[in-house]
Amino acid sequence: MDPRPAQPAPRPSRQERLLMALVKAAELFKRRSSAVFREYGLSFSQYNALRVLAGEPEGEASLGQIGRSMLASGPNLSGIARRLEEGGFVRRRGGEGDQRLRLLKITAEGRRVLEAIAGRQEANVRGLLEPYSQREQELMRRMLRDMLRRA
Prior knowledge:
By secondary structure, this protein is mostly helical. The protein has one domain: Orthogonal Bundle (Arc Repressor Mutant, subunit A). Helix content is about 65%, strand content about 5%. It contains six helices and three strands, in the order ααβααββαα. It has a three-stranded antiparallel beta sheet.
């Protein structure tokens, strides 16, 4: 047994505290958003995949494209795609060999659900960011985007 008194853990650096606050803010956003998405039979990741598809000109993208937008791995994406298809939110086609080449296309039901969610999701976003000016919000977005680009 060590006779020395236990030393307190070193205090996290300012940079680590900043990143931990960022993680907590992201978790709060995800928790609030997920509560809304669940009411429509969607997970957070499924909602994000639908948003990616809705943003495409033809409402269609490969699993690989969706994965790059969402920073999700192949096995996770296959499950997301399968559940979206089972729910009638997307249709899959092509890519018989390589699953990443399969195309997903958002259906009318997928678009309807996104429209139904939009108002409540926007309220979630506003609730978190309203205290900050547009200039502050844009600065945060640019800084975070830059951080991700450099990673």
